[in-house]
Amino acid sequence: MIVNGSLEKHFMAYSEGRDFMFCDLCGTMRTLSSTKHAQCPLCKRKISAKEISGRQISYTATAEDIRRELGISIIREEKVQLQKTDAKTCEKCGHNEHTYYSRQMRSADEGATTFYVCTNCQHQFTEN
């Protein structure tokens, strides 16, 4: 139990390990309303600017926070549908069965790139 005006001392000791930009009493973020003090907009408690001068403010932003702020959405990779062909001969093992898929890798006015994988030795090659 805290008595005889030691409540403020208790809060000051408690807040030393906490973020100095948040009010010790109610937890609301303080505003720098003047060059002399920072004030809690909710309970109006003030602290001297001398108490916070020289301290650094840091925060963590996740990649999702940045994407949301910039309005960027993630393009999801679609599952590649593999086709089989015997029109190509593997340069490595001579096998003639491959799986393949095509992707548009360059501008739209250029042809797609076809990716081949040998079903025998897993050798990979492309054709533009």
UniProtKB/TrEMBL annotation:
<dbReference type="GO" id="GO:0003676">
    <property type="term" value="F:nucleic acid binding"/>
</dbReference>
<feature type="binding site">
    <location>
        <position position="26"/>
    </location>
    <ligand>
        <name>Zn(2+) 1</name>
    </ligand>
</feature>
<protein>
    <recommendedName>
        <fullName>DNA-directed RNA polymerase subunit</fullName>
    </recommendedName>
</protein>
<dbReference type="GO" id="GO:0005736">
    <property type="term" value="C:RNA polymerase I complex"/>
</dbReference>
<keyword id="KW-0479">Metal-binding</keyword>
<comment type="similarity">
    <text>Belongs to the archaeal rpoM/eukaryotic RPA12/RPB9/RPC11 RNA polymerase family.</text>
</comment>
<dbReference type="GO" id="GO:0003899">
    <property type="term" value="F:DNA-directed RNA polymerase activity"/>
</dbReference>
<keyword id="KW-0862">Zinc</keyword>
<dbReference type="InterPro" id="IPR012164">
    <property type="entry name" value="Rpa12/Rpb9/Rpc10/TFS"/>
</dbReference>
<feature type="domain" description="TFIIS-type">
    <location>
        <begin position="86"/>
        <end position="126"/>
    </location>
</feature>
<dbReference type="Pfam" id="PF01096">
    <property type="entry name" value="Zn_ribbon_TFIIS"/>
</dbReference>
<dbReference type="InterPro" id="IPR034004">
    <property type="entry name" value="Zn_ribbon_RPA12_C"/>
</dbReference>
<feature type="binding site">
    <location>
        <position position="90"/>
    </location>
    <ligand>
        <name>Zn(2+) 2</name>
    </ligand>
</feature>
<feature type="binding site">
    <location>
        <position position="121"/>
    </location>
    <ligand>
        <name>Zn(2+) 2</name>
    </ligand>
</feature>
<feature type="binding site">
    <location>
        <position position="23"/>
    </location>
    <ligand>
        <name>Zn(2+) 1</name>
    </ligand>
</feature>
<feature type="binding site">
    <location>
        <position position="93"/>
    </location>
    <ligand>
        <name>Zn(2+) 2</name>
    </ligand>
</feature>
<dbReference type="GO" id="GO:0006363">
    <property type="term" value="P:termination of RNA polymerase I transcription"/>
</dbReference>
<keyword id="KW-0539">Nucleus</keyword>
<feature type="binding site">
    <location>
        <position position="40"/>
    </location>
    <ligand>
        <name>Zn(2+) 1</name>
    </ligand>
</feature>
<keyword id="KW-0804">Transcription</keyword>
<keyword id="KW-0863">Zinc-finger</keyword>
<feature type="zinc finger region" description="C4-type">
    <location>
        <begin position="23"/>
        <end position="43"/>
    </location>
</feature>
<comment type="function">
    <text>DNA-dependent RNA polymerase catalyzes the transcription of DNA into RNA using the four ribonucleoside triphosphates as substrates.</text>
</comment>
<keyword id="KW-0240">DNA-directed RNA polymerase</keyword>
<dbReference type="GO" id="GO:0008270">
    <property type="term" value="F:zinc ion binding"/>
</dbReference>
<dbReference type="InterPro" id="IPR001222">
    <property type="entry name" value="Znf_TFIIS"/>
</dbReference>
<feature type="binding site">
    <location>
        <position position="118"/>
    </location>
    <ligand>
        <name>Zn(2+) 2</name>
    </ligand>
</feature>
<feature type="binding site">
    <location>
        <position position="43"/>
    </location>
    <ligand>
        <name>Zn(2+) 1</name>
    </ligand>
</feature>
